[in-house]
Amino acid sequence: MLNIVRKVFASLRYRDFRLFWIGQAVSLIGTWMQSIGQAWLILKLTNSPFLLGLIGAAQYTPILVLSIFAGSIVDRFPKRHLIILTQTVMAILALLLWVLTAEGVVDYWHILVLASLLGLATSLDVPARQAFMIDLVGRDSLMNAIALNSTTFNLARLIGPAIAGLLIARVGIATTFLLNGVSFLPVIAGLLMIDRDGLPGKSTRKNVIEDVKEGLVSIKNNALVFHVMMLMLLVSLFAINFNVVVPVYAKYIFHNSPEVFGFLMSSLGVGSLIGAILVALRSSRSPSPVFLIIGGTILSAFQMVMAFVTGMYSAMMVLFLIGFGAIIFTALTNTTIQLNTPDELRGRAMSVYSIVFMGVTPIGNLFIGGIADVLGIRPSIFIGGILGLVPSLYYLRKFLDPKNAPDA
Q1: Above 90 in pLDDT, residue 339?
Q2: What CATH code is carried by the domain that includes residue 112?
Q3: Is residue 49 part of a domain?
């Protein structure tokens, strides 16, 4: 048992990663609380799944448009400084939403603007944080650090939604935004104490456009990275739309209960937490592309099953399995890309990862939200799942065939 614990938490032996990890653990709970509060507030104001999806589009469009250029910035400047900047901006935006909601003056357009600004900050924050990981722990411990970070992320997804659901029902939505704003303080404090700055690697780049081109050519020429990116693009686009699917499911299938919403999101978090621990236990091995694709297959297949679920407990079990598959898929995709990318190009590679993981969310959110408005909630969930399952099965067959399996 002790040996298992040591394997799961191996990367915590690095002081700088430990500081980063502790700060993130607190901040992510606040982030999930705000995610629940914001979704519930939008549905309360508009009663429209499509407008909920539009907020997601506003939040993630900057990632889609700007992340590719943000990768060049990450490869040029100290990553720690960039993360401190983005985390500070995110804290301010959360506190602004708290003030507007607490004063009773919040309107849909306020949330739309703040979500767009949050997306702008996130477009720089995500590639900077992802590329900073290897500076904190080195190549040999990277997979464990990513898995442990995913464990923290999903533990927060377990705790945050449950707390938010109770707070919304008993205190009000505004509290979730206040607590999120305050939760950024530990991560900023941890970053200020970290010794490593994540300095840029050596490069012959001349301008941003050439930087972007160099990064894209590198990905195109690496067959393994390219195919993993393509699968992430397709699954993210159609199957990873939890911020629309779960709140809509809770409101319209389970009749307007914020507590149920919180418990459903927490079930997703429990599955993701178990999946992340499994990845951490396997972190002494090289990431397996087949294991990665199996995660995407589980995620997509059980999203299709979700379309037929009627009971709350069965919905929680299916969401558990969706979360389990999702974290295996995303954590191993992240690790595979980073380990197969040169140091001087890692920021740009992770910026493309941000696009295919988060940046396509606007399209996916509008797609799922639009189908839900026209055909209903269950058909939209089923269609999203099958469109994620088809490419997963295609790549599973491709990677299982030794003749066609791509090499790095």
Answers
A1: no
A2: 1.20.1250.20
A3: yes
